[in-house]
Amino acid sequence: MAFAAILGTMATPTPLSRLFTVVLAGVLAGLVLAVAALPGNLLLGFAAKAALGNYAALPDALRTPATPQRSYLYANDGKTLITTFYDVNRTDVALAEIALVMRQAIVAAEDRRFYDHGGVDLRGMLRAVVSNVTEGSGQGGSTLTMQYVRNVLKTDPSRTAEERAAATEPTIGRKLQEIRYANALEQRLGKDEILNRYLNIAYFGSGAYGVAAASQRYFSKAPADLTLAEAALLAGLVQSPEAYSPIDGDADAALERRGYVLDSMVETGAITADQAAEARAETLTLDPSEQANGCAATTSGRDGWGFFCDYLRRWWVAQPEFGDTVEEREQALRRGGYRVVTTLDPQIQATAQRQATGIYGYDNPRAVPVAAVEPGTGRVLAMAVNRHYSLDDNPDGQVNYPNTVNPLISGGAGVAGYQAGSTFKLFTMLAALESGRTLSTGFDAPSRLPTRYAAEGEGSCDGRWCPGNSNPEWMDGYRMMWDGFGRSVNTYFVWLAEQVGPEKVVEMAQRLGITFRAESDADFAVNDAADWGAFTLGVAATTPLDLANAYATVAAEGTYCAPLPVVSVTAPDGQRLAVGDPSCRRVLDADVARAATDAARCPVGQQSAFGQCNGGTATAVNRILDGRPVAGKTGSSDQAATESFVGYTPQVAVAGIAANPDDPTDSVGAAVQARVIDAVARIIGTAVEGQPAQAFTPPSRELVGTPRRPVERDPLPDPRRTPDNPLSDLRRWLQNRG
Fold this sequence. Notes:
5-stranded mixed sheet; 5-stranded antiparallel sheet; disordered N terminus
């Protein structure tokens, strides 16, 4: 390396740099002359005891390297790379994984006497000092071991910025400390270990730290596969990485430096002159590869993966296992060298993305965010939306499309979510079942129901809130939980919530993971839950991820698992961290969950275990899934501003919501609900493909009660398409009767 770089001085001679050089030359020359007069054995003893260092007193980073390494994120197969995170692009490899010619080249280029000295080459250092002072030749004097010490101390993530800067400051004290540390390392570590560590930390230019990153950056290959010419080129870069880099610097200078390394390898006996001549004659052939960094780097050919990656990053910085602060956790992801196998299933993700963009294109202001969750683990299998995860600018007036990095699927960072309509009726049914009511709980549901809640204006009756059914002919009449849920009868569930207490319904939703991100919703939940009668109709904002996970809790018979984006997290030392394990707890009695599922068979066109389903709002699901046991619920917000569907089997729960994330006054329209239903059902189909069908366990008789009437035949539905009633023609009605 250049003398200025090695000794920490400036390359261009200045009065200060010349003074430092002369002073250091005097110190080192005196040391060299003093020890040169000693017999060999005494010299070794002097090096071991006097000048030099104590291994136990070394900084932790030198004894146990903690150099920055990139973290790798894989899909759930453990093979498909999603992206990497790094501040410093490097990955450690064992010495056996580095081509022999690469090891020989770096020794020849940087420290020919590496295997002969004890960490400090006083003879070589004096020669370099004299040459630099007298000739300005820029010869090097630091050994590989000394360079390794400097590289570790200036990149150690556990040190402060000031401490890292001090590792290269131009002081005699720093240089003597470097000498002492190098000798201490040589007393304890073998030469091959030091060489391996050096090769894993040296900077090769173009953002590549370590030989593994450099091999990929310049030649798109592993370091074990480097040829002699390639190894000589890389070894030559270390002296002046940015200047010699054939990608970012001077390719001719890189080739000239390659020739120097080849000549040095001949002098060390590593190769013959003929081998050097043959390698020198090779044309410089690069095969550079960019290394993905961060969530924005996932989009190449895999649009939509960035939203999952972003969710994982947000989850990561909330985990105390990775540091005491968000900044420390972020640094751990970018510098910690973790191997993260995520929960993302590429096949389910591909179907989800295809379905979401099949409903609305990327340039549509309306969106269909979709999430898929595994019951019993909380593992997030897919997250899709018709947006590009990108920092690219959008056209004027298009705040959030086609490009965005906002968490439209999971919520947070100002995204509160969307009203999911009657999907919230599930929480009312669960609260009622938990309170001792049965599935047979009956009520003669009217077209409109005056309640005890005060209200004014449209939707009120004599100063009271007075909700109605969207399709009275199909919904009104005596209902139990089965057909009340199947036909999505508003007045039945408003009445039921009033009997149970709306505060219990709100608490149930929160227990299953519904988070109130909108300030008004959070305030209502705390201060006015007892009077939040409309909550059962899904007026609170939620997200597809929260909704899918809540229904997954019911699919898992009452076991709630926190949403989890990882299968495993492995530290650089091979230790698997517990942070990747599911975090689950029972929040519902299993029998209560089974009873709710029995009623949730009705909306999707299937039959309850007790034969009480007589109509549903999403009957196409049964056909799409070819009769596989499934349950679910549709949802429409007021004036069809949003349209939703959640479906689940024992293996997967999927939720989709059609909405305009930027303009809640833009109603998506009731007609889109059938497309959302179809999309969710097909995502479920992909998720369960190849798996045996699993039946739902029927609830006990105690929660069934005694139905007060036999199963009805479906009345002819209103031919007009209405929210929560996708039946639109006589043919479909007749199919459902059959």
